[in-house]
Amino acid sequence: MSERQDSPQPHDRPLPLPEHSEPALPTDRVTDPTGAAMPLVPAGSSESSGPVAPPEPGDDHGKRSDDQSSDHRSGGWAAGRPESRPGAVEQITLRGPAELADALPYMLGYHPTDSIVLVALHGDRGRFGGRVRLGIPRSAREWPSVADQLAEALVEGGERRGTRPDGIVAFLCQDPAEGESALRVMERLRPLAQRLRTACGALDVPVYEALCVSDGRYWSYCCPDSRCCPPDGTPLVAPGTSVMAAAATYAGIQVRGSLRDFQARLRPWDRGTRAADEQLRALDEAGAALVPAILGEQGRDGVREDTLRLAEELMRRLAQNPPGGDSAAADTHDDGLLGHREAASVILGLQDRLTRDRAAEWMEGPGAPAALRLWRALSRRCVGAYVEHSAAPLTLAGWVSWSTGDEPAARIALGLALEVDPEYVFARLLHQACNENLDPESLRQCLRKEREVRVAAEEGAVASARPPEPGAVRTRTRTRTRLRTRAGAGDGGDGGRRTGAPRAARVRPAAGARRADASRPAAGSAPTKAARTVGGVPSSGLRAAGRGEEGDRTESRT
């Protein structure tokens, strides 16, 4: 089924892939061809989280020493805000680290939790550029390698787009654990902040500011002045009162909860609950019945069609029952619409790669919202030992989110898919394509073409298997009889002279009919060259989405 190896030990396991993208992420976005960030403008046109710059060198409290420390009471960071006239952009200023920390959720589309975020700065005024985000590793032994990876990802990503960063702002965001204070979190993460500064400095890109955000407060790792950065931290500005919040509201950019909220919609149910135990039993029973059929050549096609038919039925059910309330209430509503056995059958059926690729065709139009709700619900039901089975629905959820313009949700879903299965090729390709700001339309076109080819082949097979019409049989019989009559007359010595047979007896109509029949592929014939694809998705399309990655491999699981 899947091509997997034994799980590596913690110190040997591969590093997770960071999120890497341009700054702001509303649904309607236009990327600057140069790769540079663009200032905030009203929703529906181009957008960005706005540029940012360190304090000017001439400011008394904006000077930096060799260790990059600074005083933040004067100076500030520049940010873009739309003017009243269309197409014009006015510069505003984020004054100090408080407003800089307040701007972070608008860059990501959510409040980061347990995250390292690096933001690139460009030019003399420090326009916001690309950014990378990765969860904070629990083990401090991984911090050096993670810091090196993130710094290289941000700098090399900018170089590929022709805009090497001139500076970096680093954020460490983590709420206190039970019995831990925010101050303790800041001190515990100080070595990580220092390692990030060292890794960026090794690439000749200075870290202008490094902030720790915890429990509604922030600390600066770069500023030693207690007048602006007291040891107990500084409260964040009140939500909705900052200049960045005003610009984002004008532009239609919303912050939709926290990273933890996004992930909760996709993570499996906790063990020990009645629903989780019932779902686990249903998965065990479905596995005993479906896995042998999926592994066998004879039953695999039948399981595939049954899975897709059931998934369509579940999507219709969800579409007919729209959710209400907040995200938690909506997910509870959707969970109640799915039966345990139904969910188990679809989850196991999606472990077949071709089935999953067929399901990826529900990516746009009126059916996309219901498909996204279904993939989220199925991801939550991959409980217990079946958690790795969630890679398929998580990847589909990420794909539909990316296809419909929700890049923050897409990155989170694809990141979770790679968290449960780092070798899941389809998720890696989509994650890379999303991070490199590729257009999902290229993959949508491939899937549409594949669907058209498959439907045409199925219709042709049905037509060729249909018995010929009685009239057509009689016409061909009379034609062959007349031909034999003329041939016999010629053989009898008339020198090949025309007989009295009418010209209407020629075989052109019948021959045309035969040519039309011959153009239809017979049932069970080999697919045409256009129909040969990799896993239901043309391999060229997957390589385009992944910038030259290898095509997908077999990822079915027992």
UniProtKB/TrEMBL annotation:
Residue ranges with Basic residues bias: 475-485
First and last residue of the signal peptide: none
Superkingdom field: Bacteria
Biased composition (Basic and acidic residues): 1-22, 58-74, 546-558
Pfam families, per database record: DUF4192 (PF13830)
Bias type Low complexity, positions: 458-474, 499-527
Region (Disordered): 1-88, 458-558
Name of this chain's protein: DUF4192 domain-containing protein
